[in-house]
Write a structure and sequence with these properties.
Elements (H helix, E strand, L loop, with lengths): L1 H9 L5 H17 L3 H18 L5 H16 L6 H14 L5 H12 L2
Helix pairs in contact: 1-2, 2-3, 2-4, 2-6, 3-4, 4-5, 4-6, 5-6
């Protein structure tokens, strides 16, 4: 995991879209590994980048929101985010590519496991 985080830090000079994709991917891995606090910060960083580079209705934006919501739910926080997760998940899946770790975490959160 440390290697992935170092790679994300090296992306500070990369394009905004490359940073977004890296934060989304590494956040998904952190979430799957049970490191929900780290995942939350990575998904929040992805959303920070997305605000200026990706349209709010784009499925990639929904993927980052789903990751953030799933990370919070994994920490037993923000139970209200479950409604947002249910709203965003179909759009996220419509994107065509969802990091497998994110998909597994969201499915767990939605099923209550």
């Amino acid at each position: 995991m440390r290697g992935e985080l170092e790679s994300v830090n090296a992306l500070r000079t990369a394009s905004p879209r490359a940073r977004f994709d890296a934060y989304l991917e590494v956040g998904s891995v952190a979430l799957e590994a049970g490191r929900s606090a780290e995942a939350e910060s990575l998904f929040a960083a992805a959303l920070g980048v997305a605000d200026t580079t990706i349209a709010a209705g784009h499925p990639a934006f929904a993927s980052a929101r789903c990751g953030l919501q799933a990370a919070r739910l994994a920490q037993d926080r923000s139970v209200g985010d479950l409604a947002g997760l249910r709203r965003d998940w179909p759009r996220c899946r419509s994107w065509g590519y969802v990091p497998p770790a994110l998909a597994a975490a969201v499915e767990r959160a939605l099923s209550g496991r």
